Amino acid sequence: MEKINAVITGVGKFLPEYRLTNEELSKMVDTSDEWIMSRVGIKERRILKDKDKAASYMGAMAVKDLLYKTGVKPEEIDMVICTTVTPDYIFPTTGIMVCDQVGMKNAFSYDLHASCSGFLNAMVTASKFIQAGREKKIVIVSTEKMSVITDYSDRKTCPLFGDAATAVLVEPTTENIGLIDYILRSDGVGVKFLHQKSGGSLSPASVSSVNHGEHFLYQEGQPVFKYAVTYMADVSVEIMQRNNLTANDIAWLVPHQANLRIIDATARRMELPSEKVMINIEKYGNTTSATIPLCLNEWENQLKKGDNIIISAFGAGFTWGALYLKWGYNS
Ligand code: UT7
Q: For 190-215, what is the mean pLDDT?
């Protein structure tokens, strides 16, 4: 029997219009463009201002963009995997609401939660369904309204995050393209350094949790940075080695966009020149599971069928990993 691979056949996005600049942030907290640019590499981030619109709205907009671009009808979609750390509700899942808003009536859907590594985990999951042979068109929707869990009085975290949504179509192929190899890892050592303290079953919402700002993202930046720098580079190098790839063989590194210094360190360990690294953190900040597809969308016109691409990410949990894929189409 011919081997079936899962290949990305389209990438859509939704970006809110409002741009929160470093200049504006420096009027809200004691920070500066100089500090944020030199320590993280972010100039501005997008914020969804509408109070009545949430992750499912952004995700639905991204899916509509994807379906428009690919000419696929909503009813043709078999399955939707939604990655988010900012679901509309704790339950039911955001993916189901995205399906409803877009009219993907024949799809089943669930949310997959792996923080900043969500897209990698969803891509591997989609690939397994595709290889099993029944589902032919799977959408991965990554939608993050990070502004609702960001404390804009905390200078340590408020410059870092932005809102965005992306949608990726995954289909079967018998060609030697698509997802070729993956490494996925997780380790609970990171829980204490990066989490949201309240709102879950351990610490449900209360007057005290609200008064103490426990529904915002909490991060101890330095330890997270230390692990991220090591682990993201480790898996990126490991996936190169076990597929006999040198820097010359790789067309692009698509790294999670949390900190320019982490991206640079990963590229250095892979011995990749900067022109092979997709970087847009300056414009959007860290949009959690949406950063990688957002890069793929932005660089889509430069990608060629068969290009060797390494995707790598690191996030809360900790969760991290690397994918090796061969790009599936010319735009
Ligand atoms: O995507 C999920 C995974 N997350 C990550 O990968 C993030 C990893 N961590 C990081 O990227 C970095 O640790 C941060 C960008 C979060 C922070 O950068 P840092 O170089 O590690 O700074 P720091 O936390 O060690 O703080 C250094 C100093 C402190 O001042 P003192 O105590 O030395 O006087 C902070 O108070 O910088 C201060 N500082 C700021 N100053 C101006 C922290 N935030 C700011 C700020 N503006 N926004």
A: 98
> In angstroms, rounded to a whole number, what is the distance separating the alpha carbons of residues 134 and 99?
19
The pLDDT of 42-68, averaged and rounded, is 98
Average pLDDT of span 169-176: 98
Average pLDDT over residues 47-73: 98
Q: Ligand 1 centre from 18 Cα, in Å?
A: 25
pLDDT at 2: 87
CA–CA gap between residue 162 and residue 167 (Å, rounded): 17
Q: Is the pTM of this model over 0.85?
A: yes
Residue nearest to atom 36 of ligand 1 (CA): 156
pLDDT tens, position by position, 115-127: 999 999 999 999 9
pLDDT digits (tens, 9 = 90+) for 243-276: 999 999 999 999 999 999 999 999 999 999 999 9
Question: Is 35 a pocket residue for ligand 1 (Cβ < 6 Å)?
Answer: yes
Tell me what pLDDT residue 203 has: 97
Residues serving a catalytic function are 116, 256, 286
Q: Among 28, 39, 220, say which to mutate for ligand 1: greatest number of ligand atoms within 8 Å of CB.
A: 39
